[in-house]
Amino acid sequence: AGEKAEFDFDEFVINSAKISANFVLKMCEKL
After folding, report:
1. What global pTM score does this model have?
2. How many domains does the chain have?
3. Residue range(s) defining the domain that contains residue 7
């Protein structure tokens, strides 16, 4: 741990982007 214990903002942004993309794809499939 140590230095990496702080919040990993880049990873959070990437994960958020993936979740958003998956959400949009699912919404498009329902149209």
Report:
1. 0.59
2. 1
3. 1-30
